[in-house]
Known about the structure:
The complex is a heterodimer. Chain A is an all-alpha fold.
Amino acid sequence: xxxxxxxxxxxxxxxxxxxxxxxxxxxxxxxxxxxxxxxxxxxxxxxxxxxxxxxxxxxxxxxxxxxxxxxxxxxxxxxxxxxxxxxxxxxxxxxxxxxxxxxxxxxxxxxxxxxxxxxxxxxxxxxxxxxxxxxxxxxxxxxxxxxxxxxxxxxxxxxxxxxxxxxxxxxxxxxxxxxxxxxxxxxxxxxxxxxxxxxxxxxxxxxxxxxxxxxxxxxxxxxxxxxxxxxxxxxxxxxxxxxxxxxxxxxxxxxxxxxxxxxxxxxxxxxxxxxxxxxxxxxxxxxxxxxxxxxxxxxxxxxxxxxxxxxxxxxxxxxxxxxxxxxxxxxxx
Amino acid sequence: xxxxxxxxxxxxxxxxxxxxxxxxxxxxxxxxxxxxxxxxxxxxxxxxxxxxxxxxxxxxxxxxxxxxxxxxxxxxxxxxxxxxxxxxxxxxxxxxxxxxxxxxxxxxxxxxxxxxxxxxxxxxxxxxxxxxxxxxxxxxxxxxxxxxxxxxxxxxxxxxxxxxxxxxxxxxxxxxxxxxxxxxxxxxxxxxxxxxxxxxxxxxxxxxxxxxxxxxxxxxxxxxxxxxxxxxxxxxxxxxxxxxxxxxxxxxxxxxxxxxxxxxxxxxxxxxxxxxxxxxxxxxx
Lengths: 333, 285
C-alpha cells in the first residue's frame, strides 16, 4: 500500500443528522456507487484527504524509482536491464497519472513536490529500505508490488473518478511487474547456491517491511472509518495484510524459500494463516525519518529537483519568448 | 630462483613452453577471422557498443531527471538503444561464429574490445550535456542508419530499418530541447554552449575512417563514415543556429574508441555494468 496513515481531519464519522443537505446528498451518491467528478461539489475533508492520499501515492511512485534504479546499471543481462528500466519508467508514469489526478482537486504538482521535499508529505515506508543484491529486484516486484496491488485493485472502485481511472491503468502494469518480479525470484531460487542464498536473503529482509506497507491495525481508527464511508479506502489494513499473507506464503513455498516467521501456521478455522506482526516501533521510526535510507531517498529527490531548476526555467523562458515573438509577428502584420 | 632474466626474454612463447604452460583454451577462439568477416564483426560491435554504452549512460538518469516527463523520455531512449544493442551485438556474435551471444559480448569483454566512440562513454555531466550529446549522436545515427537501410547485407539493412524509426524520434526530441535550452535563460544558454564546447571535438570521431570501413564501403555493407559528415552538418548546424549556440572553431577530433583505446571512464562503467556476470560466472539470470 503506497498510502499509509492518511488523516481525514475527522474526530468521528459524522451521522446523517450532523450533515448539511449538500453533504447528505453527496454521501448518498457515494452510497449508490456513483463517481464524484472534479467540478462537482464535495466536502472539504473529502478533498483534502484525497489530496493527501493521492499525493502520498504519487510520491511513493517516484521515490519508489530509486531503490530499483539502484540496480539498473548493474542488471546482469541486456534483457533484464530493459525489463527493469521499463518497470522503473512505468513507475514514473504512475507518478505522473497520480499527480494529474491530484491536480483535479486544486493542488499543483509543484506544490506537492515542495511538500514532499520539505518533509511535510510522506511516501511509503517500504522505499526507505536498501536494495542490496540483484535478488532484491525480484523481491521488490513480488512482495512490494504484490502488496501494493492488494490495496490498488479495490481502489479501482473508489468514489473519486480521476483516482479510480488512474488506478485502473496502474493496476494493469503493476500486476505485470509482480509477475516479472516473481519470475526473477524463480530464476534466482532455482539458480546456483549463491543465487538461492541471495533470494532467501532478499525475502528475509523484505518480508516484514512488506507487511508494514499495509499500516498498523486500523480497526479502531476514526480516519479509516471516515475514508471507508467516503469509499476512498475500501478495506481495513488487517484485511488486506491477511489477504497478502494468504496469497504470498504458497508462492514462497513454490519457490522453495522460507518465510522468516516461526509463528506462521495455517489456521483451518479462519481459513487463513496466523502470522507474526512486524515490529511497529521500527515502522514508526521509519515514518519519522529514521529508516535506513530516508535521508538518501529524499536527498536524491531534492537534488534532482534543485539540479533541474535551470532546465525547467530554461524551457519556461523559451516558451515565454515564443509567445512574445508570435505576438510581435501578429502586431507587425 | 631468479625470475628476472626469464621475464626479460624476447621469446615469450618459448618461455611459456619451457614452463610447461598449456596452450590457452582461448587459442582456437582467438585465431583471426577472415578479413571480410572481421570487418563486418568490427562494424557490428561499433554499432552495438555505441548503443549499449549510450543506453547505459542514459539509464543512469532514471529517477534523477529534472522533471518527470524528461525522466520518462530519457528512459524511453535508453530502452530503444538497449533494444538495438541486442540486435547489433546478437548479429555480431553470429557473424563471429564462436558461439558468443549479445550478452557475452556486452558483459564479458574488457575495455580494449569495446568499439564505441569516446563521446558516448563520457560521464553524463548536467542534463544539458546529456541532451547535447544525445543530439550530436542522434544526428549521426539517423544519417548512418539511413545509409544502412540500403546495405548489401540484408540483416544489417533489416536492423537499420527498424532502428531508424526510433532514431528519427530521438533526433526530433533532442533537437527540440537543444533549441529551447540554447534559446532559454542566460544560464541554460551558458550550459548548452559549455556542453557543445566539451562535446564537439568528440563528435569528430564519428566521421573518421579506417581499413575496416574501407572494406565495408567497398562491399556496400556500410557507408564510409566520412561520407556522413554533410548530412550531419545539414541536421546539426541549423538547429545550433536556432539555439543561438556557436560552433566551436577547429576540426580537432578526440579519437580512439573505434579501435579500442578509451577514456578512463569506460573501465569504471564496465566494472559496474559487468559486476554480476563477472562475480558469478556461469549463473543464469
